[in-house]
Structure formats: C-alpha cells, structure tokens
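dumping this here so i dont lose it again. seq + smiles for zinc ion
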Amino acid sequence: MSIVLDGGADAITGDGKQRNIVGYALTFLLWPGILAACLYGTWLGFEAGHSAIYFNITYLLLALSLFTLERLLPHERNWLDNDGQIGPDLAHTLLNKGFAQVLVVVGVTIGIAEVAASKGGGFWPGDWPLAFQIILGMLIAEAGLYTAHRVAHEWSLLWRFHAVHHSAPRLWFFNTGRFHVVDTVTSILLSQPLLFLAGAPSEVFIWVNSTTAFIGMLTHCNIEMRFGPLNYVFNTPAVHRWHHSRKPAEGNSNYGENLMLYDVLLRTFYCPNRRPPTDIGIDGPMPASFAGQVAQPFRRIQAALPVTHDDDQ
Ligand SMILES: [Zn+2]
Ligand SMILES: [Zn+2]
C-alpha cells in the first residue's frame, strides 16, 4: 500500500513522492520522538549531576541528526542549496549564545531567584511533581517570549532587529540562531525575569531553557514531518513555516516560541490546510555579511514593517 503525500498543511514534500505506510506513520513520530530523545538526554544529565555537559552533547547530537534527516527527508528540496549565509548564521548563533550565557550567569550571580524567594515574591509550587513545575515554567516563560516576538512584529523600532531573523532565504536547522543580538536580549529580558520573580528553582530554569533550545532547532528544520493536533500545542515546523511567509497576513501569526497557547487564546494562530509558503523573507534591504546585518537596524533605509491589511485576510 502506498500513500501519495501532496497538498494540505501537513503534506510535505510537494514533489508527489510516494511512500509506504510505515514511512507515512514515521512522519508523525519523528518530531515527538526526537524531542523525547532530547528530553531524555537532559534527564540523564540531571541523573549524572552534569546537566550542562549532557545538554551540550544532546544539542550537538540533535544538530547532527537534523542535518542528516534534512538530506534524507527534505521538506523543501530547494532549501538544501547553499544560500551563502552559513557564515553569518554561525556568527549570529555564537554571539547570541555568548550573550545569553552572560545574562544568565549575571542573573544567577546576583541571585535574583534567591532574592525573590527570600522576600516572599515567589509563589513557586515547589511541592508539585517536577513535570508540572516544568510545564508551569514553560507557560510563564512563553508569556514573555510571545510578547517579545509579537511586539517585534508590530513596533518598527524592534522590527528593525527582528528583520534579520526573517531575512533568511530558507529554513533549516542551522539558521535557528540567526537573530540580531538585540532581538535575543529583548526576548531573554522579557521571559527570564518572569521565572525569577515566580521563584522558579534553577532546575526548572535548566529544563525550560533546554526545552526551548531543542524546540527552537526543531522548529526551523527542513524535514518532512507531520504533526496533526501537535500544531495546536507546540511551535512545530509546520506552524513556524507560516510565520516566515513573506505575506504579512500569513507571517504575523504563530508568535509562540515553544507553545501555541497564547496564539490560540489571542487569535494569532494560523495554520491553514495547505502547503506552507516557500517564498519566505522580507521586503527590504538586508546585507549579506554578518557585520552588515548587525549594523542594518541602525541604518536609515529599513525593511517595511509587516503590516496586515484587512483586505489581506
Ligand atoms: Zn518573527
Ligand atoms: Zn524563525
């Protein structure tokens, strides 16, 4: 028995390729399976008492797995071609990781969490099972991440920086870290303090930030997968491909970094039953070099703010 995969939001390659039923079922299992494996790696790290080392190994293995799967099962074959942006993508990723780590270290050094907890500012339900504490942490952090992302699309001052991410000409695991560093810092400052103020313990921080890193890389990957109802819960590659559409009516949606809850509640969820756009990017200038991209938000001529007009709907 064979099934033709074409058309529809969860259809995938668009090249009408036929696959057998096992391959079809596998496309549903890939995303949750890979995420579960990453979370298992994180759990092993806690068990071994070396969460940072285990996270880095898991993250590297995830990157290697996605790189391989993108070549075996590409969603969009054209997105395998070199776009000349590997250098800038890598440079943005390293700069962002450096800044994120400095901010987290500063936060921990100052001991905001302890201060918040000792002053009774934290309401954290430390007696809940860890899994529920992590889910609560994800929901709290997501409120800040959703807000940061949405204002980056609606305020021209912040769009200047966020446009660097949207200028990617293709989606693949490697441009997960393609963010202007100001954009990254804004997201961190709007999400991490919420967890601090809630009094979340460091274990929950590590779980939330590790999960965010795993889901982030999965979100951008160029792999043929299906998600079914998971699209309503998580920021899957399917919903995020719509977010990268060049059309504002499609792209001003799906702001969630990990979870779609706030998009569903605030009516910014968008995932129609057809193939997501391959025409992605921004309308406006974006230099090809890393230094040019870092400087671009400070220049006079900018990519137009992606404004949704009523007649676009
Ligand atoms: Zn965006
Ligand atoms: Zn993206």
